[in-house]
Amino acid sequence: MDDAALDLAPQATTAGEYVALLRDVRRRSGLTYREVSRRASATGHWLPPSTLATMLGRSTLPRERTVVALLAACGTTAGEVERWLTVRRDIEAHLSERDRVAIQETGTTTAPPADPAPPADPAPPAAPAPPAAPAPPADLAPPAGPVPPELVSPDVPRPARRRLRLAAVALLAVLTVGAAGTLLPRANPTTDDAPTDDCPVVLRQGMYGPCVQSLQERLVAGGLFVPVDGWFGPDTTSRLIAFQALGGLPVSGTADGRMLDELSGDLVAARWPEERVGKYVRKAFPEDPAAAVQVARCLSGLDPYRVEIAADGSRRWGVFQFSDVELSRLGVDRRTALDPVWNVRAARDVWSRTTSFEHWDCAPLP
């Protein structure tokens, strides 16, 4: 992404200027509409080429999730995406009440009135139609639909016949649309902040948007604190893995619909705050409590539910960060590793064999 395109974002003051800058971002990216759509899908967004073309072809304010999908596909950073959204919200705040209602119902502002079309050449006067015949009884009325030419009386003037055909076609279209309306479900308009069914089948690290934010809110509500910023980063992955381990679920670090259903209510029955963990560590290492707390803080921030993921995919668990290999050797599962009592006692057993903390090579946490 060309930084010059990003620097233009704060200069937009109208919906038309905002969309023009989005068009410039897409142009500078060098991506086709289909390539943008594929990249948006890879980052967890839904942006069909037709939707993108419609958005960039208008001078009306697009909805937030569509803007985020385009910018994410073009490689825009999180900070720059937030700048774009701030500009959009400022523009929306100055719209008329009618336009704000239109955004809530359709996702875009009402289109500006088009220039009046030039008057058409006057048509020659049509020949007067003959007096209408009395309507036939209902059971003898002809079926709705275009009137075949052979059923039109040859003494009816040509313009009148054309009007009859157009009326029949219009009636058939109305009946068809009405029937379709009774068969197809009616879509409920939603705002950007309301839950939608547009979420990807699987949420995974690297994605961004309201679906990820909903996942983060559920983790926090269950006692597993994580920044609720809409970004599926390492912290969210760590917390999701902790939840999966605590619940005895497959530890994948990704969330599908079933996983989101599981994320309700209290996930952690008894949350151990940092102060309580530190107190328990001091009690377990009376010989050198300060050093024990320092090591535990360095390893996990005294967070009993911390899961660290190494570059090779291996993981470390709990207060003293026992590895997958160590858990296998000790014959315990990951849920047990996240139990602060077991974790600290296991660390005490390791320490008692050497009376030193050299087993843990820890660099201070960022």
TrEMBL record:
Residues 113-151 have a biased composition (Pro residues). Residues 210-262 form the Peptidoglycan binding-like domain. InterPro entries: Lysozyme-like_dom_sf (IPR023346), Peptidoglycan-bd-like (IPR002477), PGBD-like_sf (IPR036365), PGBDSf (IPR036366). Residues 107-155 are annotated as: Disordered. This is Putative peptidoglycan binding protein.
